[in-house]
Specification:
six-stranded antiparallel β-sheet
């Protein structure tokens, strides 16, 4: 009896999965490419330099670099923040805490002696909204370095960032109250 019930469940699940697969085939999303990224960048800012595969943009005084490789299906958005040689252990710990809960899709990283804010994603499956969010989060993560260490969207619970941001908030309140 159990075997018949298990077999029936497998058949029902298989049918449901096939129906989902069929629906997904109908909802075909156009693959992201360099031409589309160029169009999106020019909607975000008038300050766009470069060419397909490598652009530099400036938004709110932050310079971002967007690099794509269509053949490898990869893209990244990076914003330089500071030299990495001077990062003290406490600051490095805070960066790792933020990567856990407040950086979201963008991340702090180090390469070639520089601390960066970076968003890295497969290119073809990237939606317009995800790309624009990636630009916004990467720039915001750079802008909040040294204060809230946040990409701006939200803070996941279970990490340390919410308590750290509360400390920052309380320090400002205490300074104001001491005047």
């Amino acid at each position: 009896m159990w075997q018949k019930g298990a077999l029936l469940a497998v058949i029902l699940i298989s049918g449901s999965l096939q129906a989902v697969a069929d629906e997904e085939k109908e909802t075909i999303i156009e693959a992201m490419d360099n031409q589309r990224i160029d169009t999106l960048l020019r909607r975000i800012t008038d300050d766009v330099e470069g060419e397909a595969g490598y652009w530099r943009i400036t938004v709110n005084d932050y310079q971002a670099v967007i690099i794509t490789d269509e053949s490898a299906d990869r893209m990244r958005i990076i914003v330089p923040i500071a030299e990495s040689s001077g990062l003290e252990p406490g600051r490095m710990l805070r960066l790792m805490q933020a990567n856990f809960d407040s950086a979201l899709d963008a991340r702090y990283c180090i390469a070639k002696g520089t601390l960066w804010s970076a968003f890295i994603h497969p290119l073809a499956e990237l939606s317009d909204d995800e790309f624009v969010e990636g630009v916004a989060q990467t720039i915001n993560l750079a802008a909040t370095y040294g204060s809230t260490y946040s990409s701006g969207a939200l803070v996941f619970s279970g990490g340390d960032s919410k308590a750290e941001q509360k400390k920052y908030y309380n320090e400002i309140i205490e300074r104001a109250n001491s005047i």
